[in-house]
């Protein structure tokens, strides 16, 4: 079972180099399982026992399974995660031709660890908007092959490299794509038009705009002497998206279950499709009658906000509170912060711990050191938007926000098991 889940995650990561591709991958798996797509611009006709999903901006998704029990009686079981990861985004006019090399200007998206981006085989993917036959359309593209690299400067020319140096994202991060002769200006949009033809078989009249990200072409893999780890890009937070999907697909039909995978968490979630925007509330209000039914249902509901946690690193153990150092392969972590950087309280933490104990899933706790700042998640944002009770949890990982992160190879099965039990739970606190 863990092996099948891990391979499924590896396949999902490979198909999901950007939030757009991740959302498409989720949609394909949902449709295969019998979920029906809803359009926000149309009237909805849903029924008890029905399975549905809706997307926004092609990069956020809400999937739900309406249970046999009325929403007003049983509430909703929600699992939340996010589709985006720190990366390098191509600028609108990116062409750089310097010393015979073609490069692209990039902007850093989110709080990326920049050093690991050097000396990696990079490809490019995302959404392209274009004009064809007088109409504006959009399509996803993925070059798949390594087409770029950001070479390090040799240590002979940077003797202080191993003492640490500040990376300048403006001057040191533009990837190299090719050598070019002469000074004829290069047209990046022409390259995108060619890629649209290769992938989709049509000719665009003009490429109008795009949202494109570089990514590492090395596949995720189970690694380690005893296959203890899974290494790959975008584990934060596609790992949680995949775990939530697997749990939703195995949910029984009694309770109403929701999976929320939103974009833009890494940059604050403040967007039309982010957790600090109206997407989730607008979808849920369409499922409930008018009046006080919405508030009553929300107060009978619970959100599990699933986002990766910091595992205690053997080389940097002093970065953790001595009593709160989550270990890889020791189960999901309940994340707690008294300043509300996480939305967990004693009731929601107790309920999640109870679920783990009932289903023989190991569980851990994380509290940041009192002399360090604390990150946050979609949990507090969703809780403040909806007023829904929330517990923040996640699987422990190393190298969060690196181009290649590391998790325990047994933990995905732990998370899927407890989330499946959560979706089936007949009683919430």
UniProtKB/TrEMBL annotation:
> Which EC number(s) does the record attach to this protein?
3.4.11.-
In terms of superkingdom, the source organism counts as Bacteria
Which residues are listed for Zn(2+) binding in this entry? 82, 156, 401
Pfam families per the UniProt record, alphabetical? Peptidase_M18
Q: Which UniProt keywords apply?
A: Aminopeptidase, Hydrolase, Metal-binding, Metalloprotease, Protease, Zinc
CDD domains in the cross-refs: M18_DAP
Question: Which GO molecular-function terms appear in the entry?
Answer: aminopeptidase activity; metallopeptidase activity; zinc ion binding
Q: Which GO terms describe its biological process?
A: proteolysis
Q: Which cofactor does it need?
A: Zn(2+)
Gene Ontology cellular component list: cytoplasm
Q: Which family is this protein grouped under?
A: Belongs to the peptidase M18 family.
Name the PANTHER family on file. ASPARTYL AMINOPEPTIDASE (PTHR28570)
Task: From the Swiss-Prot or TrEMBL record, give the protein name.
Answer: Probable M18 family aminopeptidase 2
What is the native source organism of this protein? Pseudomonas cavernae
Q: What is the primary gene name for this protein?
A: apeB
